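Course assignment 3, question 2. Fill in each field.
Student: A.L.
Task: Predict the tertiary structure for the chain below.
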Amino acid sequence: MHTTGEAPTPQETSGTTREAPATASKATKPTPKTTDMPPPIGDPTTARAEELVDVIGQRAGRYAAEAGRQLTRLAARAREESEDILMEAQHLRGKRP
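Answer field:
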C-alpha cells in the first residue's frame, strides 16, 4: 500500500491491479505452402531446370577458359613488348652493344 503522507495510487483506490499483458508463449508455426514442398521425383519441370543450369554452367566454364587463355596471351605479349622497349632503351643509352 502506501506510507503515511503519500497519495494512494489509482490501483490502490480502485481496488484492482493492472497486470502486464500476457506474452505469446506459444510459437506459432506457419502452415507450409504448396510452393515450400519439393516437387515430386521425376518432375519434368525440375528436370528441365536442371538441364538448363548444367548447360549454362558449361557455357560459363567455356567462356571463362577462353578468357583465361586470351588473358595469358595478352600478358605474354605485354611482357615481350616491355622487354623489347627496355632492350632498345639500353641500346640507345649505350649500355648494350
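Instructor remarks: The chain has a mean pLDDT of 79. Residues 24 and 30 are 15 Å apart (CA to CA).
Grade: pending
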